[in-house]
Amino acid sequence: MSQIIKIALTGGPCAGKSTAVSFLKAELEHLGAEVFCLDETATSLMKSGKTPENMGSYEFHSLLFKTQLEGERRLQALAEKSTAEKCVIICDRGLMDSRAYVSDAEFFDYAKKNGFTENQILCEYDAVFHLVTAANGAEEHYQTKNNEIRSEDIEKARELDQRLLSVWTGTPHLRVIDNSTDFDGKLSRLLKETLAVAGIPEPLEIERKFLIAYPDINILNSLPACKRVPLSQTYLTTPDEGRFRVRKRGEGEGAVFIKTVKKKISEIRRIETEERISEKEYESYISVKEYCQGTIAKDRYCIVWNNSYFELDVFPFWDKLALLEIELLNENQDFVLPDFVTVIKEVTYDKRFRNKTLAVTYCKSW
Question: Residue 201, preceding bond cis, omega within 30 degrees?
Answer without folding.
Answer: yes
